[in-house]
Amino acid sequence: MKTECTPVKIEFQALGSRQVVGQFNGGEITSDGGGLLLREVENQLGIIDCFAECFTDFRDPERIEHTVKELLSQRIYGIALGYEDLNDHDELRGDPLLAVLSEKKDPTGSSRRCLRDKGKALAGKSTLNRLELSSPEQLGKSYYKKIVNHPEKVDKLFVDKFLESYGKQPDCIILDIDATDDPLHGNQEGKFFHGYYKSYCYLPLYIFCDDHLLCARLRPSNIDASKGTVEELERIIKHIRMTWPEVKIIVRGDSGFCREEIMFWCEDNRVDYVFGLAKNNRLKKIISEELIEAQIDFTKTGRASRVYKDFFYQTLKSWSKSRRVVGKAEYLRKGANPRFVVTSISQDEIDADDLYENLYCARGEMENRIKEQQLYLFADRTSTATIRANQIRLYFSSIAYMLMSALRRLGLKGTEMAKSQCHTIRLKLLKIGAQIKITVRNVWISLSEGYPYKDLFNRVHTNLIKVAPS
């Protein structure tokens, strides 16, 4: 006979003569009612469905209770809704709404085989963990590790979904590249100390086009930030040009990517580039007159002054040829602030100040995208032992980002939250209290009447149902 437990009462400060008492006994209630919007995005675009095809399942079909897609859905929706740890799923496995998002046919879990699993439709942490730990080399050697990820398929998926998001070929696209630190606090494979970040970390490489993620590559940190960039660009641009053969492509990055190998490859493959260029005494001497002019203007006005100079420049050893450089001679309250960029774009196409202020400086928006993934979609939860497993965790975060980005791009278009970051979208649009009632014919989701963004929610839903399936 099942033991009936009395819920623990939580006593709060009284309200006048009334006691205020809380208990965790509200029944089938979720705090993530807005997650249904993410499910609409998935049903329209099939992002998780395609991601599931990047895994091979070697388990015995007769013994499976959770398909690969169901496991991935549970993990990715969990990240999007703010649950970064596998441990969270030992409680979340009983959440019927997350079961609905994961396409569980029995969201109550009443048909589970084992008595201990009754009422819990979803997988626990140990089962989910198997997604991360398998590798082709281990097949046949482990009883549990039988779900294998194929990274090359995931890499292709990122570019495929980017291409599908456009109705027609654009005239020009800009690929932003950057590296960031992923701090480590254990003994993970590939752990090294990085002098610039002053910590043990990984050094993942990201490539975005606007808010579309094209590459998320986990790397050890004992390398130059630009290492592997040519290989990733070659793969991505070849894929893009198979669909858009005539599109103009510009690669943009900071001075960490101003490398002869990258610039030479771009020049040899009809790709333009704009990279930051680290300042040195030779460069500062070239714009010395402009710096004096900027200083004089600052003295007169008291406001920041900028003067641009266009010139050709070649390093003493590392560059194979002379290239166009734009120098910004800037004078601020703190003093001179010279900056430089190198580009393959000609002066006829774009002048110096427009190149620097409107083209190069716009790369800062990519840093917001990285911040979204690192901080709000938990790309830094790389705490498992191997770099392969941590790469898969980075993929989970990346797919969650793709869902959230698509919700912003398609659902929030034309609303006051059209440019909101992931954590704001989660807080205002996904974290909605809801009561769940499951019958034979329906799943009733009763969203909170006190929810303050009802009109916005309805607009987002209307926008999403207008999106034609890809």
Q: How many strands, what sense, and barrel or not for the largest sheet?
A: 9 strands, mixed
So what's the overall shape?
globular
The class by helix and strand makeup works out as alpha+beta
The total strand number stands at 19
Unreliable stretches covering 5 or more consecutive residues: none
Q: Report the C-alpha radius of gyration, rounded.
A: 26 Å
Give the proportion of residues in helices.
25-40%
Give the N-to-C terminal Cα separation. Answer: 51 Å
Number of domains: 2
> Average pLDDT, to the nearest integer?
93
Proportion of residues in extended strands: 15-25%
Summed up, the helix count is 16
What do you see in this structure?
The protein is an alpha+beta fold. The chain has 2 domains: 29-151 and 377-465, no CATH class; 165-375, no CATH class. The protein has 16 helices and 19 strands. The chain has helices at residues 35-45, 47-52, 68-80, 89-92, 96-101, 125-133, 151-164, 229-243, 260-268, 281-286, 288-301, 352-360, 364-376, 387-411, 422-430, 454-465; strands spanning 10-15, 18-22, 29-30, 55-57, 147-149, 172-179, 182-183, 192-194, 199-202, 205-209, 212-217, 248-253, 272-276, 305-313, 323-332, 335-336, 339-343, 434-438, 443-447. Strands 6, 10, 11, 12, 13, 14, 15, 16 and 17 form a 9-stranded mixed sheet that branches. A hairpin with a 2-residue loop joins strand 15 and strand 16. The mean pLDDT is 93.
